Amino acid sequence: MTVRPNGLNRRNLLKISAAGMAMAKTGTLFSEPAVPVPTGRAVSLRSPHLALQLDAATGLPVSYRLLRSGKLYRGSAPSIPLKARLFQREPHAFSYVEIRPSSEKTTRTTTDFHFQATYGSAPAASFTLRYTLDARSIQVTLEEVQEHPGFELISLSMPSLVSVHESDPNAWIAHADDGGDLVSLRDAKAGKLPLNTFWGEINGVLPVIMAGHSGTVCVQETTAFMDGTLLSVTGEAPERIASLGTTKVHRVDGSACYDMNLGRGAPKSCGNNATPNLLVEQKSACRLDFLEPEAGGKALDWVDGARLVRARMPAIPNHFYDDKFI
């Protein structure tokens, strides 16, 4: 369970330390992390730049290896299953259920894990979780959702697609919400980004989070507009772990309460048993990019991740506000 200390907010979750981040430019020596062992059969995808290992027992990433440098990023903890949020119409109820793949299919560039979610003993929904590898990039998408009569799939929680450990050389994390923050993992406090006042887990301004170690960078961009962006730190020194993840949303929870920006202290607007769980009608997706330096090149940092994201953004339509202070 993620620890959230009193008073945690977006600013003090990631406490910037100039001394701590300076180490990212040094050659501090650490032992290479051991390759995680999947609980079930290993499923692998490989490009000329990146090797992805998945656990057939959970449908989750185990590790990512950057092939030029040999550096390793870890995925989810072994044996921890995915959780889906389901809705039952009669009687009206929501429930989180653990799910495991019922089958798997792998091609040269993709792996599909097929899931069957049950509510109690009744089949409720089926879907496919797809990983697509292209060069240094991985797309994680929710496909082929089928809901059984009387049930709806609300969301799928994936809180740890990628993780970095305090034992990883020069490990750091960054996020872009509310102006952004950057911190060495050894200086980070245990906790997670709290819910946005209006959007919950949705990072509506800039849904980009990063982690890095050993002069390499992982960038996660949540590319579906209703999906959640998750960043957490767990554990205590010297065994802290930072996790990047997402919540894949198929339907908007009609029972939830929302701040409608009616002023401080105004009651939230809440749904009831008659409020429908609306379909998002956009494919749930997020993207992972892994960067490593050229042979003999300088170590990379968050700026290189930011440049990668900026390079694929649409051009600025109007430069009126360039170099202006408002």
What does this structure look like?
With 326 residues, this protein is mainly β. It has one domain (10-311): Beta-galactosidase, Chain A, domain 5 (Distorted Sandwich), CATH 2.70.98. It has helices spanning 10-13, 18-22, 302-311; strands at residues 42-46, 50-55, 60-66, 72-74, 82-88, 93-99, 101-106, 110-119, 122-134, 137-147, 151-165, 172-175, 181-184, 191-192, 208-213, 216-222, 228-234, 241-249, 257-258, 269-270, 285-291. The strands form 4 sheets. The protein has a 9-stranded antiparallel sheet with strand order 7-8-9-10-21-16-15-12-13, with helices on one face. A 6-stranded antiparallel sheet has the order 6-5-11-18-17-14, with no helix packed on it. A 4-stranded antiparallel sheet has the order 1-2-3-4, with no helix packed on it. Strand 7 (101-106) and strand 8 (110-119) form a beta hairpin. The radius of gyration is 20 Å and the shape is globular. The termini are far apart.
List the helices and strands and how they pair.
Blueprint: H1 10-13, H2 18-22, E1 42-46, E2 50-55, E3 60-66, E4 72-74, E5 82-88, E6 93-99, E7 101-106, E8 110-119, E9 122-134, E10 137-147, E11 151-165, E12 172-175, E13 181-184, E14 191-192, E15 208-213, E16 216-222, E17 228-234, E18 241-249, E19 257-258, E20 269-270, E21 285-291, H3 302-311
Antiparallel strand pairs: 1-2, 2-3, 3-4, 5-6, 5-11, 7-8, 8-9, 9-10, 10-21, 11-18, 12-13, 12-15, 14-17, 15-16, 16-21, 17-18, 19-20
What is the CATH level 1 assignment? Mainly Beta
CATH topology label: Beta-galactosidase, Chain A, domain 5
For the sheet with most strands, the description reads: 9 strands, antiparallel
Distance between the termini: 42 Å
Q: How many domains comprise the coordinates?
A: 1
Summed up, the helix count is 3
The share of residues in extended strands comes to 35-45%
Radius of gyration over all CA atoms, rounded: 20 Å
- pLDDT averaged over residues: 88
